[in-house]
Amino acid sequence: LTMNEMKNVLLFGYGKMGSSIARGWMLKQLEFNFFIIEKEAALRKIAHKDGFKAYPNTNFLHESENLKKIDIIFLAVKPQQMEDTVKNFSNFIFSELVFISIAAGLSFSWFRKKINNDIKLVRAMPNLPASIGFGVTGYCKSKNLSEEDNKDVYALLSAFSKIIFLNNESLIDNVTAISGSGPGYIFYLVEVLTQIAIDQGLKVKDAKTLARETLIGSARLIETSDIDTKTLKDNVTSPGGTTEAGLQVLESETNGLYPLLKLTIKNAIKRAKELNYDG
After folding, report:
1. What's this model's pTM, rounded to 2 decimal places?
2. What is the tens place of the pLDDT at every residue in 39-81?
3. What is d(CA 154, CA 152) in angstroms, rounded to the nearest whole number?
4. DSSP secondary structure code for residue 39 in this structure
5. What is the C-alpha separation between 19 and 11, in angstroms, rounded?
6. What is the Cα–Cα distance from 156 to 116, expressed in whole angstroms?
7. Distance (Å, rounded) from C-alpha 164 to C-alpha 187?
């Protein structure tokens, strides 16, 4: 493909998530032209260092680039900045343009009200490990995307994470609660294991190493073996042994890990629904 035949992707926002996503695109050497819109000069500087063309707003972009057409707009700004961001699009032609938003809580209907009723729209929920190329992203889309649009969206999202397609917009809240917020739960698990090890008399440094490496090693085992997690668990649980004794508490139906995490997820979903905003 020549430069002119390649599609133009406009990324709004080069903060933590935006920059992580863009670096994922760079690593995969995708067949798109990328342009960054970022109002913070310091973040634009980082984008330039990363090899992108970055501009403070769309006016600057249009003045310095002879862009006939923008094909995809990827919105990686915070939900509270979205209102200002979408004002940039009043003079765009919408029939071909695909919008991809990773803003939690901003629904399809919000974007339709703010931009245009017939826009092509994708809502995606990536998570923090996407910043190192190990993320997972759930996404849903409006019904008006073409086959080619779908391919482009797939290429852009799968560059920085594994992806799952949701056939219903409301499931985005569940994804937010499980994988979006999930890294926080996992980090807390390591924090708690560390603290308990310290309480039991281990040195702080040693406690940290034991907790962290246990999680990392177990995760690697899940990743590299074809065995499902239940079997892996059973394999380390000798009858009458220490793991079994510990699991008796964790697997308790009344106050074990299942009811506790169920409550955790429920509360996160509730909050995600409260944050949902139709405009």
Report:
1. 0.87
2. 999 999 999 999 999 999 888 888 888 777 889 999 999 888 9
3. 5
4. S
5. 9
6. 23
7. 23
